[in-house]
Each structure stands twice: as C-alpha cells, then as structure tokens.
Amino acid sequence: MHAAKKYTEFEELFRNSYNRLYFYALNLIGDKETVADIVGDAFEYLWKHYEDIQDAATPPLAALYTFVRSRCMDHLRRCDIRNRYETYVTLFSERIDDEEYWEERHERISRIMTLIQQLPPKTQQAFKSCFLYGKSYKETGEEMGVSVNTVKTHIVKALAFIRERVRGVKGN
C-alpha cells in the first residue's frame, strides 16, 4: 500500500473512532490515564500492522475494539491480582504482631503433629511422605512398595483421623 494512502486512511480511522474507543474502554476500566494508554497502544499496533489487518477478513475498527477489549481485560486481571495480594499482605501484617494468633497457630500445628504420631505406621509413613516431604503418591508408593491406590487409601484414612480429632478438640 502506498504510504500516503495508508496515512490518509489511518488518520480518518483515528479521527472517527478514537473517542468511541476511549469511552468504550473507560466504561470497562474507569481510569482515564490507563484508558488513554490502551487506546493509544491500539492505534500504534494498528499502524504497525495496518497492511496485515487490511488483508485480513476483520475490518480495522473491529481489530481496534478487539485489541482495546483484550488490553482492558488484561489490566483488570492485573488489578484483581494486585488487590488480592494487597489484601493478603494487609491481613498478614496485622497478624504478624498478633501474639495470640501465633500461639493459636503453634498449638494447632503441635496438636496435628501429635495426631500424626498416633497414626498406624504405614499410614503415618504415607502421610508424612506426601504432606511433609512433598512427594507424589507415585514416589511414595514406590518407596513403600505399594500401589498408588494404597497410598491414596492411607492418605484418606489419615486425613479423616486428623479432621475428626481436630473437630473434637474445637467442640470441647
């Protein structure tokens, strides 16, 4: 495509659709600065790939909307992850100095470790191997000389035993 024709078509597309794309993205995100960046990036992408998009079945305006929507969704996902992380850090920060929380947690861990010691030897071995040492059921089965299903059975028994005893302590 001739450069002058490309420029003219692109400029017309920009003038006719920038505001619509901007407000479309603003409806999705709500942050004017971020929206301006996303829409600007969409037009930059279109400029760099204009010939390819012109040859494709998708019209340039549809490609712009697709690009803007995709970037908006990416932004929202990143914000969601950031918000969840900030919430986690805030909760953890509040608890870091909470002596009662740490004492309760230590007691719970000690109680569970005591319960693990009360499991039958093979069940205890399977449970420790999988949960404390992070081995797979297959690795544990090979070490113990039993099938993966046998390991699963030991794990189910161990978890049921521990849950039952922990709930019993809470109920008292």
Automatic annotation (TrEMBL):
It holds the Pfam family Sigma70_r4_2. Residues 111-161 form the RNA polymerase sigma factor 70 region 4 type domain. Residues 13-78 form the RNA polymerase sigma-70 region domain. GO terms for molecular function: DNA binding; sigma factor activity. The keyword Oxidoreductase does not apply. NCBIfam families: sigma70-ECF. This is RNA polymerase sigma-70 factor. It comes from Bacteroides pyogenes F0041.
